[in-house]
Amino acid sequence: MDFTAIDFETATRRSDSACQLAAVRVRNGEIVDSACWLIRPRPFVFSPANIQIHGITPAMVRDEPEFGELWPLIQSTLGDDCLIAHNASFDLGVLLACLESHDHPAPEFQYSCTRAIARRTWPQQPRFGLKPLSDWLGIRFRHHDALEDSVACAKIALAAAEDKAASSLEDLESKLSLSRGTAGSWGKKGPTSRRSTRSRRRSASPGSPAPGSPAPRGSGKRTSVMIAGSTVASHPMQSPSPCGMGASGVDLQRLLVRADFIRPLEGRRVVFTGVLHRLQREEAEMLTSRCGGQCQSSVSRKTDLVVVGELDSRTIQAGRSMSTKEETARQLAEEGAPVRILSEQEFLEMIIAGESS
User: Fold this and answer.
1) Is residue 195 part of a domain?
2) In DSSP terms, which residues pair with 110 in a beta bridge?
3) Strand ranges (DSSP E) for 43-120?
4) Has residue 343 been placed in a domain?
């Protein structure tokens, strides 16, 4: 995953009124560098509505360079990277308008859009703005600051790549059937679906609703999974609650993509005991690892968390009121060891809340 995420803020509704630009460079799936410029717009006019959005005032940029002066530095920073922005049509439009306004020839750009990427990666989400998506993914940032917006944009792209197990931006675009946008002195053409309307119509089964059309009221929209050639209906899809729990269980996908950014179990050693009901044991261990934790098979003085499920049949048959692991953890806690004993629900709530202390 190599690209540069950008974001513009503008002084007015004019596309050539850039007053802030940020660029965040990503290499091998990691943010490695960033740059941010305050820009004196030409003409030097600010709209009160725009100031209210981003908080940049005329006094803050009065002594800053105009875009034309900054362009050589900006161009060397962007290099030949594919540019990514959230609602990229706006940002590329600002870039092209500023180049034209300051009499700089526009080079050829390749670009993509995290709004388009997110729509194809998480189609079940109700909103695809930068703030709603970042909240859902657990990305904390200050909205309408160009640098923080660029970082959030980069992290959305990386979360989508993680979700789709994509090894590169090209691989992600291929898996999402998303073409790359292009821009230059001739204008711009944004990312679009690689599948034609005709192919989408052919792929739709007779009598099925058009893609994106709402399910009939009261139908309880269902997903299905193909197993050995037969279709098995799953439970009706549930909208997750604000804390990420759906009525049918845990929104594991959401927790996993959030985990890379929040990592609430960083450096902690975790032991699971008993029968879990909200997660399968393999899922719980995978979630722990993605949250920065390390799973242990037994309890020791180095253990930080012991997650206790219901007693299994062997423990019950032995007439015990708790598992050996829980008993060991309680003894260590009484001796002053800093081990915490949590229920499965408490463990999930801790991860959802992004607790780090």
Assistant:
1) no
2) 182
3) 83-85, 109-113
4) yes
- Report the predicted TM-score, pTM, of the whole model to 2 decimal places: 0.62
Print the domain residue range for 169.
3-189
139 plus 257 within the same structural domain? no
**Is residue 293 in some structural domain?**
yes
Q: What share of the chain is helix, strand, coil (3-state, %, to 5)?
A: 35, 20, 40
pLDDT tens profile 58-116: 999 999 999 999 999 999 999 999 999 999 999 999 999 999 999 999 999 999 999 99
**Length of the chain measured in residues:** 357
> Which of 130, 126, 125, 127 shows the shortest CA–CA distance to 141?
130
Q: Is 59 exposed, middle or buried (0-12, 13-18, 19+ CB in 10 A)?
A: exposed
273 bridge partner residues: 308
294: CATH: 3.40.50.10190
Residue 19 shares a structural domain with residue 151 = yes
Residues 300 and 180 in one domain: no
* Rounded distance between C-alpha atoms, residue 159 and residue 147, angstroms: 18
Phi, psi dihedral angles at 220 (to 5 degrees): 60, 70
Sequence-ordered list of residues with C-beta below 8 angstroms from that of 73, at least 6 positions apart, any chain: 37
Residue 264: inside a domain: yes
CA 288 to chain centre: 18
Q: In whole angstroms, what is the distance from residue 42 CA to residue 14 CA?
A: 10
Which alpha helices (H) appear in 217-312, and where do they start and end?
Answer: 252-262, 281-290
Q: Could you report the per-residue pLDDT of 311-331, keeping only the tens digit for each?
A: 888 888 888 888 999 999 999
170 Cβ contact partners less than 8 Å away, ≥ 6 residues apart = none
Task: Tell me the one-letter amino acid at 310.
Answer: E
